[in-house]
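Weekly structure sync, notes
Attendees: PL (lead), two postdocs, one rotation student
Agenda item 3: pending single-chain targets
PL asked that the sequence for the first pending target be pasted directly into the notes so everyone works from the same version. It is reproduced below exactly as submitted, 77 residues in total.
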Amino acid sequence: MGPQFCPLFAAQAEATRPLIVIPLSALQHAGTSTLALHLLQSALVHVKTMLLQQVLAELAWPKKLNDEGQRGLTALF
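Predicted structure, written out during the meeting:
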């Protein structure tokens, strides 16, 4: 038996065009890539949060931040 394919049908307006055939292995790789990118994004958000917390832990920042600045930071956490 040959490779498995997943057909994607053209819209009704373009029904005269031939259908597009994408191998299932390509779809599986796309799903894996999507999950890997999501994991990378989550890790980068975590690192960014940790860096920001370290900067804000310095003693000079509470004096520099006014109420508006603190409200702006609230959305990040």
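Discussion points:
- The two ends are 53 Å apart (CA to CA).
- Residues 5-74 form one domain.
Action: rotation student to compare against the earlier draft before next sync.
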